[in-house]
Amino acid sequence: MTKTITAFKETISIDSDNDDVDTKQQIKYGKPSQAAWAILSEYCDHSTIHGMKYLGEHKRPWWERIFWIIVFGVSIYTCAALIMNIWHKWNYNPVIVSFAEKSTPVWEIPFPTITICPENKAPQTIFNYTDTFWKLKDFHSNVTQEYPTNEELANFYVVSQVCDLHIIEQSKPDADFVRGVDIITRLSQIMPAFRETFLRCKWRNSLQNCANLFSKFITDDGMCYSFNSLSVEEIYRQEGLLPELMLHIENRTAADWNVEDGYSSAAQTTTYPKRVLGPGTKAGLELLLNGYEKDFDNLCRGPVQGFKIYSQNNCELECLANFTLTKCGCVKYSMPRNATVPVCGPKKISCLYDAEDKLAIKEFDQGVVAASSSYRAATTCNCLPACTSIAYEAEISQADYDYKSLAGLNGKSTNEKDKLYGAKKSRLSIFFKEAQFLTSKRSELYGTTEFLANCGGLLGLFMGVSTLSIVEIIYFCTVRLATNLKMRHKKRKELQNYEDKTA
Description:
ion transport; transmembrane helix; 14 strands; four-stranded antiparallel sheet; sodium channel; elongated; 2 domains; disordered N terminus; alpha+beta; 19 helices
């Protein structure tokens, strides 16, 4: 050791920049700058990254080092730019929508929930909405002194909850004396009778009692009737279930079906929710609906009469209820709420519509912020689409239904009420068009595995870098560095002891 130390001291004392000095000797005995350069040279000599060994070679011309520095820099820049492109795809376009490998039979999904709402909210034979409106309007215009009775006013303000907004605004309501429970009760009493509206129902080509197929539900469109709907406990949260909202209590639960897995293998053909066994009109739902022309009131809903099929989104409805409560201090009678939340009376109907418009504008403005991105921006409601969902694409065809001629062919004639009130009948058939359909599925376009594989390929192509190369860098910066420093400290201490003894 003495000879080694003496020789090294003589060497570095003659020329401290001598590149022929052994790298390990520089680490052990050299100056800090020499030790640092020796450690870097040691890494370059042993690195598996392409081009690094040329940077650490001794006695290479400076222009060669500059050449390899430029090449190395260009490789790093190109590789980083391409990796950023992959990162952008991974972060902003992570999924791709494709079709399933095989078709799905229609009996694997539930028959859609059909909710039918009569457009005629107040039959004139029960309550003359138009007459009450003109009484109020003429009274406020000093045309007449006749004022509607309290019963007429109560019915008028209740029906106005489901009529066009301009009607209630022109009536100038000056009191909020109709409570939430009264609204629901009166709407049920005023609306057309179920047995006069649903004349005949067929399910899977079998005549059924309509009352056994349809249940009454409260919607923002008034009282409606639903077929094949889930129980309210499976639709709303428990705090939003009020007794007056639960006009129908479904005792069945969807034990044999869920939206992620579908029907269980043990599910029967008569399971709940209902499902069909094939396509075509005979396998679906067929209804014969009725309305009386004498009962039609064109003021409330305009000239369009008949029925519509109703749908709603629970998340957006709950968000609208919360927003309406904040803006108006109350909610619409049909909105989910707890027992302490008040229901808006006739004076707040304008506020209900205004809150709905403001929320739509607010959601629009917040959504525009991230319009250039592929992801959906967080909004006030933030009602995200479900991971697994069922959407029914409807095709509508219509034709005139000459029920009078059909009744004559069957040897029947219209009854006296039909003749007196001018019955208007409609037949509605809802069915699956095809026996199978192709499901769409969202799958990962760039998952973690694909992202790492692409990055690894680019790093290998431009720099020859692998996982072990990264571990190698960490090793030289931690374990190898600590070992060299410890070894250097030990040798420097031995050198100092030798100098003290020879002094």
